[in-house]
Amino acid sequence: MGRRAAELGAIGPLAVFTVVGPSVGAVVLTATFGSWYGGLEDSVNPAPLFFVCAAILAGLSLIPTHASSLVAGMLFGTAPGSVLAMLSVLAAALLGYRVLAQFSRARATLALASRPRASAVHRALLHHSGRRTIWIIALIRLSPLMPFAATNLLMAASGVRLGPFLAGTLLGIAPRVIVVAAAGSGLAELDLSQGADRRLLILGALATAAALFVAGRLASRTLRDLAAPAR
Predict the structure, then answer these.
(1) 3-state secondary structure the chain
(2) What's the pTM?
(3) How far is CA 206 from CA 92, 140, 141, 214, 222, in A?
(4) What's the CA gap between 141 and 135, in Å, rounded?
(5) Which of 8, 27, 43, 74 is such that its CA lies 20 to 30 A from the CA of 217?
(6) What gap in Å lies between CA 61 and CA 71, rounded to an integer?
(7) 73-77, 102-106, 169-173: segment of lowest average pLDDT
(8) Exposed/middle/buried for residue 165 (C-beta within 10 Å: 0-12, 13-18, 19+)
(9) pLDDT, tens only, 156-209
(10) What's the longest Cα–Cα distance across the chain?
(11) On the CB side of 15, how many CA atoms lie within 13 Å of its CA?
(12) Cα–Cα distances in Å, from 64 out to 43, 58, 61, 105, 201?
């Protein structure tokens, strides 16, 4: 147990932070809504200011992307808000990926190096086909079980290539961002309970099942190949 903890190093605390940080940030955003929303709304260039703030805060795991999408809808309406929210989420994903990779990738590589079977499964899941990687990431992004920041950490630690990471992120977040921004366009106060559309929950549940199925099939195939005698 001590050896595993030493191998993983900072990944454990980082994983906790990527889950807890956005939750705490959501509470702070809601509690302080009156002190920052008016200034943002009345600023000379609210779109660039929103983009920078949302990208940095979500990228550093300080707020949930659900909140930034709602605020985008409140400020700019459904269509412009959806586009701006999408761009800010992609920028947040890129920032989170870059920052978290600096802390986690070396430790994850060390842990995998000592476990050849786990390393082989890891390569099969994420390193063989760009299109396959994109669809796996998209399914993970659609799933409600994996928070945005925690997924950034998982992908950064796994060494997923940046192109498939961003493409999968775009495909996976698009439905949720559009629905949440549309919900935000009708709000006068920040209400994080809005945007929890039942259709998104169903889509997320299907995506979770599909991701588990695909990952399980690929992992099983890889393990069978490892166990097969050499010819």
Answers:
(1) CHHHHHHHCCHHHHHHHHHHHHHHHHHHHHHCHHHHHHHHHHCCCHHHHHHHHHHHHHHCCCCCHHHHHHHHHHHHCHHHHHHHHHHHHHHHHHHHHHHHHHHHHHHHHHHHHCCHHHHHHHHHHHCCCHHHHHHHHHHHHHCCCCCHHHHHHHHHHHCCCHHHHHHHHHHHHHHHHHHHHHHHCCCCCCCCCCCCCHHHHHHHHHHHHHHHHHHHHHHHHHHHHHHCCCC
(2) 0.77
(3) 25, 11, 12, 12, 24
(4) 10
(5) 8
(6) 17
(7) 102-106
(8) buried
(9) 877 788 888 899 899 888 888 888 898 888 888 888 887 665 665 565 566 556
(10) 71
(11) 12
(12) 23, 6, 7, 23, 17
User: In the structure encoding, which two tokens stand for residue 104, read together?
Assistant: 């986690």
One-letter amino acid at 121 equals V
Q: How far is CA 220 from CA 64, 138, 206, 225, in A?
A: 34, 21, 21, 9
Identity of residue 18? T
Within 10 angstroms of residue 110's Cβ, the number of other Cβ atoms is 13
